[in-house]
Amino acid sequence: MKSRPFLRLAFLSLLLLPLGATADTLSALGRVLPRSGIVELYGPAADTVQSVNAREGDWVEPGQSLATLSSAPAARTRLQQAEAELAATRVSNDRDLEIARSQIATAELEMKYALNRFDRIMAAGNSEFISPDQIESRTLGKQQAELKLAQATQNLARLKSDAGRSLRAAEAEVEAARAVVATAEVRAPLKAQLLKVRARPGAPAGRGSLFQLGDTAGMIVVAEVYEADVLKVKAGQKVTVSSAALPKKMTGIVTSVSSMIARNALESIDPNENSQSRIVEVTVQMDETAPLDRLVLLQVDVTITL
Questions:
Q1: What does the pLDDT read at residue 267?
Q2: 245 within 8 A of 277, measured Cβ to Cβ
Q3: What is the reported pLDDT for 238?
Q4: CA 84, 86, 90, 92 torsion: positive or negative?
Q5: Could you tell me which of 292, 267, 270, 265 has the C-alpha nearest to residue 280?
Q6: Per-residue pLDDT for 21 more than 50?
Q7: CB 169: neighbour CB atoms within 10 A?
């Protein structure tokens, strides 16, 4: 019977615990995000928006044009000219090389003919019908054929070198023009949903982000855990998320714990809470997407089961 006061004391201590808190859970604030995070898209500082090609809420594919900038028409014209110049360079190079190869073929035939004539007269030896002038003429003919073949070969080598340089220059101009065309369009870097469209026709492209998008096919919550508690948190732990905006409590699992300590970005509505705290971000993969995909950046209460 002497143990009853101790039992009463233990019971009272349990009643004094905050409502909903247990020794094996940890509470934190968090924010709802797409699993990709929020991706901000910007345009060049010196350009303006010509047209907006997507609407808020649309799902977009990687590489899809979201906005066309005012530099696009001139960029496309430059690309067309560069591609035409490249095609013309290829045709011109092919023609010049074909002519040079035909000149070599002709020089080789002339060389073969001159060499046969020279060999025949030299085979005749000291015949009384062969004059020194004939031998000299055949020798000169062979030398001229050799020189012509050497010149034709050198000409082909020079043309190949020149053709390579001109082709590389034309190809470089096409690549540069394509790069300019690419910067004249704001394109989606991933499959995602457009969360916010700030781009407006005629507005400067470089003053702030034009689009915010994220992959809302999967949702996460980034919880801000106090630095003193973070070593208790590990990947795989179960999580419960709640908010007045949610129709029910939602569940998830810890997938990663940051290694960096930072200032908190979220503030509790409790006036007794310190508004400036040092926290570590903990990423929670949510089991369900809806309705979180419609509540991006919602501040939520997070309970981690340790």
A1: 76
A2: no
A3: 97
A4: positive
A5: 265
A6: no
A7: 12
Task: Enter the tokens of residue 62.
Answer: 């990687």
Query: 222 is written with which tokens?
Result: 């980034």
Buried b vs exposed e over 66-94: b needs ≥16 C-beta within 10 Å?
bbbbbbbeebeebbeebeebbeebeeebe
The alpha carbon torsion through 181, 184, 189, 190 (nearest 10 deg) reads -90
Where are the strands (E) in the chain, listed by range?
25-34, 39-41, 49-52, 59-60, 65-69, 185-187, 192-197, 211-214, 219-226, 238-242, 250-263, 278-286, 299-305
Give percent above pLDDT 70 in the chain: 88
CB 227 within 8 A of CB 278: yes
- What confidence tier does 152 reach under pLDDT thresholds 50, 70, 90? very high
Residue 147's φ and ψ, nearest 5 degrees, are -65, -40
Length of the chain: 306
How many other C-beta atoms can be found within 10 angstroms of the C-beta atom of residue 178? 15
Which residue, 295, 213, 195, 218, is CA-closest to 40? 213
- What is the rounded distance in angstroms from the CA atom of residue 54 to the CA atom of residue 13? 59
Q: Quick check: 305 and 239 in contact, CB under 8 A? A: yes
* Stretch (H or E) spanning 112: helix 72-123
Using the predicted structure, report yes or no on whether residue 274 has a pLDDT greater than 80: no
Copy the structure tokens of residue 96. Answer: 């010049």
Contact call for residues 303 and 22 (beta carbons, < 8 A) = no
What domains lie within the chain, and their CATH numbers?
Answer: 22-37+215-305 (2.40.30.170), 40-71+185-212 (2.40.50.100), 72-182 (1.10.287.620)
Residue tagged 């014209």 (tokens)? 77
Q: What SS3 class is residue 215?
A: coil
